[in-house]
Structure formats: structure tokens, C-alpha cells
Amino acid sequence: MPKAKLVYILSRRNAAADKAGQYIDYKGEPRYMKSPLEYLAEALDTTPLGDDYALEGIVYDDDPQSPGDQAALQDYGFAWHPGRQWIFPKDLREQGRLLREMLHPVPSAYRRLPRDAAAERAAGKSAFERALLDKLLTLQADVVVLDGLLVILDELVRPGARFDRRIVNIHPGITRIESPYERRGARATLDALHGAQGRKVTDWTTMETKPVPPVRRTGASLHYVDNGIDSGEVIFDVLGTDIGPEDTILELRWNNFNRSLFPALHQGLALLAPHIRRPSGTHDIQGDL
């Protein structure tokens, strides 16, 4: 059976917040912050996971015209450059191909529109998803991995859509709603950090909290993407990260990546491989959502 063609989608502004590709202060000592993308590339090169998958492209949605994105990426820039730091090592390869040559920008520019311009934002969001679809078809993607994409997909993942149940997300938290360790949403790591300190944030704007029983563990989940927020069916999850009382958010992020998220990504993709639909023949370059 041929390898499944895997396309990776992320918001690099989220990776920048994690200090991906940099050394962080960890309890007074430097530790390298390896990103999930860097971990996956190495796993495809050195483990049997590479028998099932080939990385075909890396898509990012950051918008060079957005002041917010400019600020978030001031240390990285919007394109790889030999004189700047990047979210992975400059010579990182996957099965012989340089990752820096697999990069494809598809900006989610609609985010610059005023929030009260509902019709314009909806049209812009639809245009973004269609551009994303065209890119996935051009890359002949069989499966798509989202990692910190700060956009909620809609048309691409509706039931019956071309990429329904072919897009999965690696999330730094347990997403099963019935779990006492559940941490959905973009603030999963910060939510877990507060939870370990016996606090629940009730308003993320004011940071108002209420006391709750401490929960001192967290994990990660690989799940299918649906129209909700981290609500898709779980493929594999790992609850392997203890939270220390003095952990910073970056220390917890490092721990959770290494103890839960990397194993969840690896084992989840291994479980998924036999179920990926690999269309026979060629893909259309353009198509309906």
C-alpha cells in the first residue's frame, strides 16, 4: 500500500508563543522547545510511522498584513530566512526533503475585518477555506494534521465534505467531555495550570476565577475535526503529565509535549493509518467543499 500523503497545518503565531525552535528557561536551566512538527518529521524519518506516511507540505495561515500577526511573529518573520530563527532547525529533513522547502502560506486574511462586519467576515472565511481546499488538493493530501491552527474550520469538515474525517487535530489537553481532566479550547494549557492551583477561570477577559478542587494532571488528544471546538471523536489520548505547583506555562508546555502530546500524536497516527482513504487515480486540482 502506498504511503498516505500527509499535510500539516498550523498557525505559526501559536508556535511562536510556545517558543518553538528556541531554548527556554526550565527551572533555571535551558531546555530546547521541540515543536510537534519537528517531532513528527523526526518520527517519519526514524520510526515505522514513516512506512505509513510521507509529509507533503506544511501550510500556515498567518497574515503578513495583520498587525497582531506581525507582533506575534516579530522574532520569526513570515517566511524562512537564513539569518533568522525559525520554528524548526534550518536543515531539518523528512525522508530526504528539507522542511523549509515544504512551506505554503494560505493567509486567513478575513481576521483583519471588523468583528461586527458579520457578512464580510463570513464571506472571507469561506474564501479562506476554499483556498485551503485548493492547496490540499494541489498537494494531493490524503490526511491533514492540524496543530495550533487558530481558526475554527467549518465548510472543510462538514459531514460529507471532501475532507470530512480526513482532518485530525493534535490538542494539548484531554478532549473527552466526560473526563475530569477535560481541557478543550485554545487556552487548554493555561486552563490546566490554573486548575492545578485550585482555580477555574470564569472570564478570560477579566481573568476572574473561582475556587475548585485542584486537578494536577493533564494530557493530549489526537481527534477528528468537526465543526465544534475540540469536540471531534478521539482517536488516541494520553494522560501522562503531572503539573507541579511552581510550573510556569512554558515549563508545563514542555512537559506536556514530551510526556503526552508527542506520544498521542505518534500512537494516534499509527492507529489511523489503516483507515485512511487513499483515492485511486489522480486528485482534482480544484473541487467543491
Give a description of the structure:
The protein is α/β, with parallel strands linked by helices. It is built from six helices and 13 strands. It has helices at 12-17, 36-46, 67-72, 118-138, 188-196, 249-272, and strands at 4-10, 23-26, 29-32, 53-60, 93-94, 97-98, 103-105, 143-147, 167-171, 199-203, 208-211, 217-224, 234-242. A hairpin with a 2-residue loop joins strand 5 (93-94) and strand 6 (97-98). Helix 2 crosses helix 6 (249-272). The longest helix is centred in the last third of the chain and has 24 residues, at 249-272. The chain is globular. The two termini are 27 Å apart.
**Gap between N and C termini:** 27 Å
Q: Which band does the percent of strand residues land in? A: 15-25%
Identify the strand order in the major beta sheet: 7-4-1-8-9-12-13
- CATH architecture call: 3-Layer(aba) Sandwich
State the CATH class.
Answer: Alpha Beta
**Could you report the average pLDDT, rounded to the nearest whole number?**
93
Global outline: globular
Q: Which value, in Å, is the CA radius of gyration?
A: 19 Å
Give a short account of the largest sheet.
7 strands, mixed
Helix content: 25-40%
Individual helix count:
6
Assign the CATH topology: Rossmann fold
